[in-house]
Specification:
The chain is an all-alpha fold. 57% of the residues lie in helices and 2% in strands.
Length: 194
Amino acid sequence: MAKAGKYAENNKSKGNKIPRVKAAGAVRNKKGNGAIMNDNKVSESDIQYASVKHSKHLRSAAKSYISEAAYTAPVSEKIIIIKNGISKKELEAIKKESNLDYETLSNILSVSKAKLHSKKGTEKFDQNTSERIMLLADVVAYGQSVFEDKDSFNEWLKANNKALGNKPPIELMDTIYGIDEVKKEIGRIEYGVF
């Protein structure tokens, strides 16, 4: 397991699992050409770039939630997918991969459990719900890529996190700003910045 810096020190006493990170203490440049910068400073754009980069380069196991096109697509294509709607079948794949129940999904997606249950197979959700499903899928794919293990990431989502106000990341994901904060925290874990 790679070193996780201060994150490890802050979380050992709580019994939290220490995630494996790809580049603890090192920061890749924005171009993604493999060059490593020597300082440990990460800008918000570096973290956002990493999020986009990882949505394009998912492990083969993580490609199964929605069609591969949804994750390897540029933002403009994701917008089209959202406007066309995401199906119940695709949501079910995300649910299975993330190990989330319908109660949690209804909170994250801001819809009733009845609406989630009423859709069948290839029936599609409206644009607002589809956008939240896409955001959730991006977080799950990025997190599993960074943690290199879906079970570790799924546990991390449900464990209290000091950097997020001692709340589990999943509790913050009922707002778009909360989803963004969770993605940023995953980026900080990836780059070893705590």
